[in-house]
Amino acid sequence: MFDLTGLTTLKLPFRAAQVLKLSSVDNVRVSMPDLRDTPRLILGGGSNLVVLDPVFEGVVLRPEIKLFEPMIRGDEVILDVGAGVHWHQLVMQTLAQGWYGLENLALIPGWVGAAPVQNIGAYGVELESHCVAVTLYDFELSDVVILRHSEMQFGYRHSILKAYPNRFMVLSVRLRLSTVPNTRVEYGAIRDEIQRQSGSVERPEDVAHAVMAIRRSKLPDPDVTPNVGSFFKNPVVRPEVAERLATQFPGLPVYAQDDQMKVAAGWMIDQLGLKGFAIGGFSVHQQQALVLINDGSGVAEDLRNLVKHIRQQVKATYGLSLQVEPTQLGQL
Ligand code: EPU
Fold first, then answer.
1. Contacts of 189 (CB under 8 A, 6+ apart)
2. How remote is the CA of residue 218 from the centroid of ligand 1, in Å?
3. How far is the CA of 36 from the centre of ligand 1 (A)?
4. Which residues participate in catalysis according to the annotation?
5. For residue 232, which atom of ligand 1 is closest to its CA?
6. CATH number of this structure's domain 2-63, picked from the four choices 3.40.50.40, 3.30.43.10, 3.30.70.100, 3.40.50.300
């Protein structure tokens, strides 16, 4: 058995029977064993994984693919990046090259391979606006396949990889960036922070620094405080439901999401007075109520009870069911 607890940011006990490291797309193409009938788990940065069953009797796949291959055509940069590259390092590296587009997604933990799975998003930008295609290993076909953006079924924290959680493994992601800055600063807090730092809303570097400052002030560093970022998704509801809730609960933040409305779950949990609320070693983060933290002594049962309590309270007051955002291994 391999002890993989330290490879997950929530630090719940995790041991696995087998670990298979993959170093390149060609390595996968040539030497991937047939794992169709073997329980599999793909482990990248481990920052969006909740391990509720401490023992995994299958194979853990580690796509340590470090590809970084740009193609520059005029002011467009097409960049192929391996699943094993650290997301934040990629953001910083592209900025340093003067290739813009990822600045709002600075400081998101984890590896590139996880980015398309839940279509990572922050401060008004989602991965999908820069993702042209994804190279995957298809365990059903036992082959490497490429899905274009239009085939990825991207949505809010969603993609085809969430719809078929066991079928594919991300090997690399093709991004479209630009040498021409085109910043997105609709998110009010970014503008305020840029102003505070005496920066310019037109400079992608200043946007990245503002995003980093906001994240550092609200979100616990997973290297210091075990957590998996937002534990719940913001519920997406019909516009009339959002309108009714906003009238009933003045101040409730609501945002347009396609033709629906997204309601701020963190605000609701906060309003229920649950910031700092703890069960055993798990508690609701003091600065961002959508984040649950482990003080290091937390066990799966504490987390189950905390999640149950939060869901019950939100359901009773707001009538909404909270969905868990990170990937789960085992049942809550
Ligand atoms: N709010 C509160 N109290 C809280 C938390 C939030 O009043 O404890 C309010 C905020 O003041 C704001 C609104 O709720 O008016 C939304 O909060 P915030 O801007 O912090 O964003 P969020 O909706 O809670 C989402 C993402 C984050 C991402 C931020 C910024 C999801 C599940 N989470 O959080 O992503 O960083 O927006 O864009 O969509 C993650 O996925 O792990 C993650 C951190």
1. 123, 214
2. 9
3. 38
4. 157, 230, 325
5. 32
6. 3.30.43.10
pLDDT tens for 28-87 read 999 999 999 999 999 999 999 999 999 999 999 999 999 999 999 999 999 999 999 999
Residue (of 257, 124, 101, 96) closest to 174 by Cα position: 101
Of 225, 292, 220, 227, nearest to 10 by C-alpha is: 227
User: Hey, what CATH topology would domain 236-329 get?
Assistant: 3.90.78
Nearest CA to ligand 1 atom 3: 267
Distance CA 330, CA 97 (A): 42
Distance (Å, whole) CA 45 – CA 112: 9
Q: Say whether pTM exceeds 0.90.
A: yes
219-243 per-position pLDDT tens digit: 999 999 999 999 999 999 999 999 9
Residue 198: other Cβ atoms inside 10 A: 7
